[in-house]
Amino acid sequence: MNRFDRLFWSRLWRLAKPYWVSDQKFVAYGLLALTILLSGSIKAGNVVFSYVNRDLMTALAERNAPVFSHKILLVIIYNVVAAPIVALDAYVAARLMINWRQWLTEQFLGKSFHDRAFYRISSDPSIDNPDQRVSEDLLTFANFTVGFVMQVLQGLVTAASFLVVLWLISPMLVGVLAVCVGGGSILTIVIGRPLIGINFAQRRREADFRYALVGLRDNAEAIALYGGERREQGELLGRLHAAIRNFNLLISWQRNLAFFTYAYDFLLPLLPYFILAPSFFAGKIEFGKITQASGAFITLRTSLSIIIDQFNSLSNFAAVVRRLGGYLEVAEKGQLAHATAEIISAKAIHPDIETQIETVEAPRLAVERLTLKTPDNRKTLARAMSFEVAAGEGLLIVGESGVGKTSMLRAVAGLWRSGSGRIIRPPRSAMIFLPQRPYMILGSLRDQLCYPHAGQVTDDELLAILKMVNLKDLPERLGGFDAEVKWDDLLSLGEQQQIAFARLLFNHPEYAFLDEATSALDAGNEEFLYDCLASAKINVVSVGDRRRLSRYHHKVLELLGDGDWRISSR
Questions:
Q1: 541 sits in which H/E element
Q2: Which of 27, 179, 266, 274 is deepest in the core (most CB within 10 A)?
């Protein structure tokens, strides 16, 4: 077994096991038992029906009208009884799949948001299109796993039933079937194995194309203003052509596999006739037994040849397991639950080991001997940095583009941990970070202002906050606090920054970290907003231009490049 096989089974086990030992296990096992019971009753009925069909064919060959009429009546009764059982079986299996998909999605989302793993996932180049993995791949995983397991279980029940029937007619047919199914499965795996990697690539190519289309929709105005239609069209066509090229490769290998599977499907059902025909012509068996043997042979072939019949789907499923397993591994990588203690103890034993920045919660902001590196450890942004921002003081971080100003805020937030030293900061709930381009959530104006922590408030309280940031007419323009609009399209960047400050004032954290959060505002509005923060006694750390912002801060941290820095008082 090669490394890919071991990794596949390991990932499959990690994905499949948790649901069946969770608090939902009793419902899951109940639905599974019910669908097995329903499927088993259908298969048992098929065994009985094979004898009815045998007698029906014999009566037809012997022109025995009374027996034929009796058997036809039994056929009708059987199908009337079987129809609701078949429908209920499909419904129960679908309920099991839906429940599992919901549970899996909730677990993946929980892992994604724990310790802000979604940030690591979005910045990891090995995890393309994480949205597709949570929305589509989890659905495919639950759907295929339930369907495949039920096919296997049904196949075992069918095999146990019809092998007896086939053995009683001709033991030779049982041996021939075993050889054909075993050899066919091995050949299918050998011929179709490349489909696994091709299916993985296809899902990525299709997701890349869809992602570019979403980008076109979300940035339509900017593209139009730039006149970038030709470039965007070229990018979209490039991604489309990549998907088409891979799809052509996919259907070529599917064609190669179909050459074998078609011949297999065509020739195998003929074997019972070749083997039993001499006995029939010699008068040793009746015609009905040939049709019964043929039916049993075909049923067993279908039940036991699941790898042959489902290999295209299995190869796609293997790609899904690979994508979901990779997502889960990145989500769980570097969790805070065990990071700090293990790193410190490991450093004591191996001084050259690569460490992470230690974060300590306290009612103040300081860094001690901080060396900050990029996540790939290729560039040092700050070396042996130490400073403290006392309560009531403001810190301005300045420097040329690319020296790591925003990265300092990422380190304080705990998003970047590569390096060494210690960051002492308030609890995460006591801090709010405002990026240059505000995050406008999906929801109403009320939701925008209360995000992320504030609870339910009155309209008067919301209006008072909007007056503080010079947006008092916004509810009237939008149709009230509960109106939901496309915020990025309706509001200018400056108004979005004012909304972000309103959100900041409303949540009233101890510390506010502003990453050029007033860059789209005029000097008057900028001064007004910083005065609001001072009046609210919110400690401020800003990234921005020294000339514009130094008067609102007590200290200036200048990043000089190559890890050098200096700090001064205004």
A1: strand 539-543
A2: 27
Using omega within 30 degrees of 0 as the cis cutoff, is the peptide bond preceding 438 cis?
no
Q: Strand 564-569 vs strand 555-561: parallel, antiparallel, or unpaired?
A: antiparallel
d(CA 418, CA 416): 6
Rg (CA), the chain: 34
Segment (H or E) for 513: strand 511-515
Residue with tokens 């096991």: 17
Give domain 358-569's CATH architecture.
3-Layer(aba) Sandwich (3.40)
CA pair distance 43, 442, nearest whole angstrom: 50
Yes or no: say if 74 and 52 are a contact pair by the CB < 8 Å rule.
Answer: yes
Residues of CATH 3.40.50.300 domain(s) within the chain? Answer: 358-569
pLDDT tens, per residue, the chain with 570 residues = 455 578 888 889 999 999 999 999 999 999 999 988 888 788 777 777 777 877 887 788 778 888 888 888 888 888 888 888 888 988 999 999 999 999 999 999 888 888 778 888 877 777 877 887 888 889 889 988 888 888 777 777 766 666 777 777 777 877 777 787 777 778 777 887 788 788 888 888 888 888 888 878 777 766 776 677 888 888 889 989 999 999 999 888 888 888 887 777 777 777 777 777 777 787 777 777 777 777 776 766 666 666 666 777 777 788 888 888 888 888 887 554 344 434 444 344 334 445 688 999 998 899 999 999 998 888 999 999 999 988 888 999 999 988 999 999 999 988 888 999 999 999 988 999 998 888 888 788 888 888 887 667 788 888 998 999 999 889 988 888 888 888 877 888 899 999 999 989 988 899 999 999 999 999 889 999 999 999 999 999 999 887 888 888 999 999 999 999 999 987
Q: Which CATH superfamily hosts domain 3-332? A: ABC transporter type 1, transmembrane domain (1.20.1560.10)
**Which among 12, 34, 158, 23 is positioned nearest to 96, based on CA atoms?**
34
